[in-house]
């Protein structure tokens, strides 16, 4: 039997020693591209995973640029030409291990000296619709909703969208608002426009109402057009509530400003009798979210301001410095009627403002965000507070109009006076359907108001994007092809 101190000479000891050496080897640390290019890990063994954005083989060396969506900037990879492979092409998915070193090039601070390159998923660059070193416009990449996230422009959009979502949530949290998940399935149409998607089960037994109509629920069910009425319920117990989720409009339009499914940020504030309170929250929300984007996504935002809307950054900077303009609906109509511009739609007092009117008003007021207040009472839904002003009968309602988009936010004080609300509902034939809504005014009611902000329209405004279909991951619109 060998002495203990000679164990390493035995066959088993050699095997044990090899295992220990393997165990003690440092495992490459997995990093995102964003973490790698921050050059905090220079000198360490790392592993990155992503997609090849460029391939440049040379006689002795191989140069790659790899991106994983965590950053607009790609990581340069330098390897021996022996690691080149026929499947290593533009668009292929790879896993690369090596050492992160300081780069001798002025174009990047660090690069990855590769020891191993594995092609995880191949890509035929001939068939791939996006070509290396070619700039593809938003209209072109829109044709490939399942692939456009591979482009710089759309990956930047998705990062911006993610950060904007977080910033909105953070704003309301800091202001003490409670988030409420309002229903997607509902029986009410709080907008009153009738552009609803009705929902019924496919191939299942349905309930039959008194008139012989069959429904899964006891009443017709629709995809929500707004979470406002449900927020009003919650505003009876909290000073501030909000929701952030999908909403649906069955509007038969394929225009650049309409979607069948989009996202809304909606808030309801209790104990307020002032439109100024609502306007302050709208403006503060816009500034807080935009400030966060400019701070956290400077390269992604700059890409849009350079290639999609050149020079638009100056507009955004101006929006961040000055208070938003405020005019009444009556003043807006006077401005439109004093204009030499010929509008397609009427501009009589009592007519709803159309997109062409909204964009003109914004430009007239310095191409700057504009609040329009006190709309005709007849234009607004039953819940809008009656100003009880004569001879012009108006409601305490407000819209926020922004450059290039038109209306981005809409809100109002809510009618909290039970007698007036009962009369309005009766006139609209809604008193039975909205008996529960009247209960909100009977039991501990307080003056309150709220607003909704179109999330996609906000992104259009900040980035200068003309078509709303370019700021949402999967656009749904009339006669679109769903994935």
From TrEMBL:
Source organism, top-level taxon: Eukaryota
Record InterPro entries: Aa-tRNA-synt_II, aa-tRNA-synth_II, aa-tRNA-synth_II/BPL/LPL, Asn-tRNA-ligase, Asp/Asn-tRNA-synth_IIb, NA-bd_OB-fold, NA-bd_OB_tRNA
Sorted UniProt keywords: Aminoacyl-tRNA synthetase, ATP-binding, Ligase, Nucleotide-binding, Protein biosynthesis
Gene Ontology CC annotations of this record: mitochondrion
GO BP terms in the entry: asparaginyl-tRNA aminoacylation
An example Gene Ontology molecular-function term: asparagine-tRNA ligase activity
Pfam families: tRNA-synt_2, tRNA_anti-codon
Enzyme Commission (EC) number: 6.1.1.22
Domain Aminoacyl-transfer RNA synthetases class-II family profile, chain residue ranges per copy: 158-473
Broadest EC class assigned to this enzyme: ligase
NCBIfam families: asnS, PRK03932.1
Family statement: Belongs to the class-II aminoacyl-tRNA synthetase family.
Protein name: asparagine--tRNA ligase
Source organism of this protein record: Salmo trutta (Brown trout)
Name of the encoding gene: NARS2
